[in-house]
């Protein structure tokens, strides 16, 4: 490349990035040649995400990793991309496009260009330079490791949906309860049951767990804790879709997407009610759960069910309580007076002996109720 062409490219750096589609890689290669007077090779990594929320997280990891490794980011001086004016920003000696889907970093010492372009990362390095290629591969590995670490720290549950006669799973982030203090937040008789349920989730065993009791006693918080601690796939089944478990399309969907999963059904009194008391004496949702918990389908799918409700357990169909099918059940109630008092002192610095309270009452104790503060439930004064 002669000096006239090199100067032209340097003075018109932003023009390199006007083209769309596959032609862009050609312009990245031209820029590499301009900057380093060498022919480039490229390592490319393409990615896809089920959740659009992951894309900005991945971009953030890419940008922070590049900067930690001494790369410098460049921005557009004056460029149009897809009809959008990207502004007039200039950083450094050379210029290039910066866009929400496009970011470029360079390192003069390493003689490498990094490009984040929509759904791909490109690493341009000196042609057939094994050391530079190895560096690029390690760079991409470090990005994936950091991103997966961030993803794994977020608790998610898949929610089953139906669109155009096809079932699908949509991941939803939930509150992380990995550090839930079981000893302080639940009564003593729950300790062994909580341990048994945790072991059940990790075993190669299908079955059913029933958690019931009044509202605000910590059933959902405990499920969040299980999701945060376990590596199993958790799936939330909306109550009105329980009858769909026998749908042949659902069976195929479960075989493909949910094998060995933990299915959570909340507030499912209507699904688990005794078949003699249910409408027309037939409860399709219950029959389906029984079949998948330990019937013929259960042998193949290895599904685990966690069902919660607030009503009396005596109304639940006795077939669900059969030994071998029911792994464990627990009735949540108010925290004992001793534990309530200890938690009130820890949370609010209040001393004294308090009456038994639910977790919801304790953690919302300082919130005004209809314009008036809640009265202290203290005994012994």
Question: Order of strands side by side in the largest beta sheet?
Answer: 9-8-11-12-13-10-14
Would you report the number of β strands?
16
CATH topology of the largest domain: Rossmann fold
Which CATH architecture of the largest domain would you pick?
3-Layer(aba) Sandwich
Q: How many domains is the backbone divided into?
A: 3
Helix content, binned percent: 25-40%
What's the level 1 CATH class of the largest domain? Answer: Alpha Beta
Structural class: alpha/beta
Number of distinct helices: 13
Order of helices and strands: HHEHEEEEEEHEEHHEHEHEHHHEEHEHE
Work out the strand percent: 15-25%
Radius of gyration: 29 Å
Q: What overall geometry do the principal axes of the alpha carbons give?
A: elongated
In whole angstroms, the N-to-C terminal distance is 92 Å
The residue-averaged pLDDT reads 77
User: So, the CATH homologous superfamily of the largest domain?
Assistant: P-loop containing nucleotide triphosphate hydrolases
What are the salient characteristics of this protein?
3 domains, five-stranded antiparallel β-sheet, alpha/beta, 381 residues, seven-stranded mixed β-sheet, elongated, 16 strands, Rossmann fold, single chain
Task: Describe what this molecule looks like in 3D.
It is a single chain. The chain is of the alpha/beta class. It has three domains: 3-152, no CATH class; 155-332, Rossmann fold (3-Layer(aba) Sandwich), CATH 3.40.50.300; 337-379, no CATH class. The chain has helices spanning 3-11, 23-36, 54-68, 130-152, 182-185, 191-202, 219-229, 248-257, 269-272, 284-294, 296-301, 337-348, 359-363; strands at 40-46, 72-74, 80-81, 84-85, 102-107, 112-117, 120-126, 155-163, 166-174, 207-213, 234-236, 262-265, 304-309, 326-332, 353-354, 378-379. It is elongated and about 80 Å long.
């Amino acid at each position: 490349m002669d000096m006239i062409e090199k100067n032209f490219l340097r003075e018109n750096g932003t023009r390199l990035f006007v083209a769309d589609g596959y032609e862009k890689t050609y312009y990245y290669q031209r820029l590499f040649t301009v900057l380093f007077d060498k022919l480039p090779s490229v390592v490319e990594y393409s990615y896809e995400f089920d959740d659009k929320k992951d894309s900005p997280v991945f971009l953030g990891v890419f940008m922070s990793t590049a900067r930690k490794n001494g790369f410098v980011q460049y921005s557009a001086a004056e460029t149009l991309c897809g009809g959008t004016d990207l502004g007039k920003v200039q950083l450094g000696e050379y210029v290039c496009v910066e866009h929400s889907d496009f970011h470029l970093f360079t390192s003069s010492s390493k003689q490498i260009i990094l490009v984040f372009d929509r759904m791909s990362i490109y690493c341009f390095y000196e042609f057939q330079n094994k050391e530079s290629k190895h560096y690029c591969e390690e760079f991409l590995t470090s990005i994936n490791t950091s991103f997966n670490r961030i993803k794994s720290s977020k608790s998610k549950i898949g929610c089953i949906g139906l669109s155009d006669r096809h079932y699908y799973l949509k991941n939803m982030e939930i509150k992380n309860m990995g550090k839930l203090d079981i000893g302080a937040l639940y009564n003593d008789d729950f300790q062994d049951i909580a341990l048994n349920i945790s072991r059940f989730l990790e075993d190669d065993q299908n079955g059913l767990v029933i958690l019931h009791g009044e509202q605000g006693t910590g059933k959902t918080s405990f499920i969040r804790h299980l999701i945060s601690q376990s590596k199993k796939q958790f799936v939330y089944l909306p109550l009105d879709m329980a009858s769909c478990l026998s749908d042949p399309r659902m069976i195929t969907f479960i075989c493909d997407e949910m094998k060995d999963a933990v299915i959570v059904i909340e507030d499912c009194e209507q699904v688990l009610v005794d078949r003699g008391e249910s409408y027309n004496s037939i409860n399709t949702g219950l029959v389906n759960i029984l079949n998948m918990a330990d019937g013929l389908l259960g042998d193949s799918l290895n599904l685990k069910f966690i069902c919660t409700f607030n009503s009396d357990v005596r109304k639940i169909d006795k077939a669900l309580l059969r030994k071998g099918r029911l792994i464990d059940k627990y009735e949540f109630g108010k925290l004992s007076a001793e534990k309530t008092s200890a938690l009130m002192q820890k949370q609010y610095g209040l001393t004294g002996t308090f009456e038994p309270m639910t977790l919801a009452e304790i953690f919302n104790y300082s919130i005004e109720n209809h314009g008036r503060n809640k009265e202290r439930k203290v005994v012994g004064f």
